[in-house]
Design goal:
By secondary structure, the chain is of the alpha/beta class. Helix content is 27%, strand content 29%. It has ten helices and 20 strands.
Amino acid sequence: MCPYPKILLKPGKEAAVLRFHPWIFSGALTFLKSEPGEGDIVEVFSYDQAYLATGHYCKGSIAVKVFSFSQVTVGPEFWEERLSKALQLRRKLGLMTDGSTNAFRLVNMEGDGFPGLIIDYYNGVAVIQTHTAGMYQARHDISLALKEIFGESLKAVFDKSSETFHNALQATRDEILHGEITPVTITETGHRFVVDIEKGQKTGFFLDQRGNRMFAQFYGKGRKVLNAFCYSGAFSVYAIKGGATLVHSVDSSLQAIGWTKENMMLNDIAESAHTEEVADVKRFLTQTTERYDMIILDPPAFAKHHNISHNALQAYIFINAQAMKRLNPGGILFSFSCSQAINREMFRSAIQAAAIESGKKVKILHQLSQGPDHPISIFHPEGEYLKGLILEVE
């Protein structure tokens, strides 16, 4: 077994690790010789020298991100075993076998035991995003492991870490680790979507909303729908396929509206069933005179850090209050927050404040979260980042 730098915890600081929480904070650490380098694999021991965990050392308040609670030798074989387990779960979910879906999240950071790593799979293309130096340094071993578990069905591996990992000592750039990147079209529950791996937001598509889009298909029947912050129009496609009479998609990005138009054509949707508009959603909601039977609000993260959560809550209150005012009586509102800094209780309080501000009576019909291919470790509740509510607005 390869020796790794050893870190001791201060007396009494091992309780959270013994409960399998994967984050160890800097205030809990003491060093035997010298501080490890960022991204180094380290072994963590209690003050009385009992082994606790193995993880990547990080600069910042979270000093170690744990990927194993047993002593291991880390290399391609280790990552291959871990990735095989993650793939096995997705097969159990039917994502590899039912034929109607060929895109899913393979690795969801702490939820799959890979803190600092996301891997999304798009019809033969694996897109990696690293959030820590340790995972960035392991990306080539991880790419080799992906080739082993997928075999010839893996067409390419693309590292898209320039947006998510920044380090003064390491220049990060997006790069192809295996194969060639060609235009990607995926199938999701029978619907087809173009995914721009290189230019799209995050890894290219929002796979975490798959199950929630099915609700849009169910509730869309016979309704006039606004899909705000539409990105590439996935919610719009589902609503129309469910029988919506008209869907209006709005996004501030001209490129996003271009992808939306492509996806309408890809799914043989009549021009009469859909309109698109490039507009700032906040301004659109305050200025439009249109009324809708269903509105979908899926904004980008308004808060990426806890110190700006108050401003984010005000933004959620504003857009939801405006949406409630644009709904016909008995209308349906889908409202989401993907801000990890905003917990479920805070989000629900913001929706309550929006209902008060709009003067509407509101009922919760469904409480939503991320899909099962975005699992949450029971020991790491911070992994529940996506919150959603389906509401009836009287």
